[in-house]
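[job 4471] stage=fold_predict status=RUNNING
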Amino acid sequence: MSDIIPFPRSREKLIRDIKVEFNQNNLEKVYELFEEFEQHFELDETLSLLKCATLHELGYYLELREETIILLKQGFNNYDELVLYYVKSLNNLKQYVEVVEVINQIIDEVQNHQTRMELFPLKEFALSQLEQYNNCLLYTSPSPRDKRQ
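[job 4471] inference complete, writing structure tokens
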């Protein structure tokens, strides 16, 4: 009786499969392949950005936020792209205060002008959502006169 030991797919084969599936827009399959890949190998910078793009497109914003935090702490070179994914994840998670705070903190660190141009509308959107929320509070909170009755 022989024990068969399953070998994981080779690193190169998995990378190739990830890229093919991504290009064919089979994002659920890409996500599964990343799960398999990360069981055996470390993601490099290129694959990490591809994973972020996949998470964003799938709408997995909480996981995207966590992933970008880890990658930013590791000091990857593509700071601008990672920060953009991070802010987009916060925005989609409706964490508008954090969106504004993060953009205010990082705007001078962002090197690419295009990234800045993408951050400003996100900040404006977050500010408009906060303003809308504050206006709702003003109109729904009882007036001082109502409290006395």
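[job 4471] summary: The helical segments are 11-23, 27-40, 45-58, 61-74, 79-92, 96-106, 113-140, 144-148.
[job 4471] exit 0
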